[in-house]
Write a structure and sequence with these properties.
The protein is about 70% helix and about 0% strand. With about 110 residues, the chain is mostly helical. It has one domain.
């Protein structure tokens, strides 16, 4: 009985820690979106003439691999963004890799 209870408590703690990590990633994603390039991604992506990232992601029209590719390589008028992303304070503080930072932005935009 004690062993079952211990396993149940352990599983609950793991689930909670996963949720905390997801919330942290979302918060860092928001900070990246607000601060990258010094003016934030929304300076370009929240105006009607440019791709509306959140809408595209929510509609399933911009898969994470394509999103990551554009951030890493640039496309048309979009410059490579990973260097600017990695300079955002919360990204540095969390010790995120490029892929973790990109995942964080994607998760933020998906909400």
């Amino acid at each position: 009985m004690k062993k079952s209870f211990g396993l149940l408590v352990g599983a609950a703690l793991l689930a909670l820690s996963g949720q905390v990590a997801a919330n942290e990633a979302e918060e860092i994603g928001a900070k990246i979106y607000e601060r990258a390039f010094g003016r934030g991604c929304g300076a370009c992506h929240d105006i009607a003439s440019n791709p509306q990232l959140a809408a595209l992601i929510k509609a399933g029209k911009l898969p994470k691999d394509q999103f990551a590719s554009v951030l890493k390589n640039g496309k048309n008028g979009m410059p490579k963004a990973t260097a600017a992303i990695m300079e955002v304070g919360p990204v540095k503080k969390a010790g995120y890799t490029e892929d973790q930072a990109i995942d964080a932005i994607y998760e933020y935009l998906k909400k």
